[in-house]
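Researcher: Structure prediction, please.
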Amino acid sequence: MNAEEKIAAELDEIFAAHLPPTLEPGEVTAAMMAKRQGVSVDRAKATLFAAHKAGKLERRMVRVDNRHPIWAYRPAK
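Model: Predicted structure follows.
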């Protein structure tokens, strides 16, 4: 491995360490709920956010399918 490849590998490790985690079992995204309920993603987002604000759901930032970070929701503890 030459110096350039070594630097690139180190940068890849740093980048991967700072990515949001992936979705865990028991978590849903707005897109998943929209598909399940047959509503728009915007409607699902609004409903999930309202439940989060009411303390019924917890949320955390995740990355799904190597796309941009999104909110994942799960029942509050």
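Model: The first helix runs from residue 3 to 17.
Researcher: Thanks, that helps.
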